[in-house]
From TrEMBL:
Protein name per Swiss-Prot or TrEMBL: Probable transaldolase
Swiss-Prot/TrEMBL keywords: Cytoplasm, Pentose shunt, Schiff base, Transferase
Gene field: tal
Entry's family note: Belongs to the transaldolase family. Type 3B subfamily.
EC identifiers of the protein: 2.2.1.2
Organism: Galbibacter marinus
GO annotation, cellular component aspect: cytoplasm
Length: 218
């Protein structure tokens, strides 16, 4: 399972990278705004800064355009920024056309804002490299986000689709574990969802005892 971090915060990206388990980064316009990154030039520069931290990892950069021609223009500009950029495209009609266009050109896409198995099927048919079902936002409206991961896994396995299931809107460590059990290819979430995997009270108690016993004999 690949681990992506879902943030535009360079310090958090660097911390996850230093842990040695980071495979990529996802961003979106809201995450950029949260870090105060505004203006086209600043946003483009920030994508390059992120790519330079995540050695070799995929970095999703989202288009703002919503019509085919503008999506293509914007996506091509994003893809040219850095070889690690994945063009993130929303699940709308022109987005499906744009994903097919990019797929035919060998440019990788991440289909975002996916909330149903049908949308995921379309993304795979259009040749998206990644599909991003937002499990946390489904949970927020009292729907089972994890069930969507299971449904997409079944559909993709039935037909051998190569589109990777990128469990997005992951909110906590149990989401990571559950997505791993269901066979999601990738998860993207906050740094806390990754570092939370480290914690177990028996590890802390066991280590404290080992160190205390060592001290007794030395
Ligand atoms: C995915 O690529 C999105 O950026 C993200 O996971 C959305 O998460 P949220 O629902 O926590 O905003």
């Amino acid at each position: 399972m690949k681990f992506f971090i879902d943030t535009a915060n360079l310090d958090q990206i660097a911390e996850a990278q230093a842990l040695g388990v980071l495979d990529g980064v996802t961003t979106n316009p809201s995450l950029m705004a949260k870090e105060g990154i505004v203006g086209r030039d600043n946003i483009l520069k920030h994508y390059v800064d992120i790519c330079n931290i995540v050695e070799g990892g995929d970095v999703s950069a989202e288009v703002i355009a919503t019509d085919f021609d503008s999506m293509v223009k914007e996506g091509e500009e994003l893809a040219e920024l850095h070889e690690q950029i994945i063009v993130k495209i929303p699940m709308i009609k022109d987005g499906v056309k744009a994903m097919k266009y990019f797929s035919d050109k060998g440019i990788k896409t991440n289909c975002t804002l996916v909330f149903s198995p049908g949308q995921a099927l379309l993304a795979a048919k259009a040749g998206a490299a990644y599909v991003s079902p937002f499990i946390g936002r489904l949970d927020d409206i009292s729907t089972d986000g994890l069930n969507l991961i299971a449904e997409i896994r079944q559909i993709y396995d039935n037909y051998g689709f190569e589109t990777e299931i990128l469990a997005a809107s992951v909110r906590h460590t149990m989401h990571v574990i559950d997505c791993a059990k269901l066979g999601a290819d990738v998860m993207t979430g906050p740094l806390s969802a990754i570092t939370g995997l480290l914690s177990h009270p028996l590890t802390d108690i066991g280590l404290a005892k080992f160190l205390a016993d060592y001290k007794k004999g030395n």
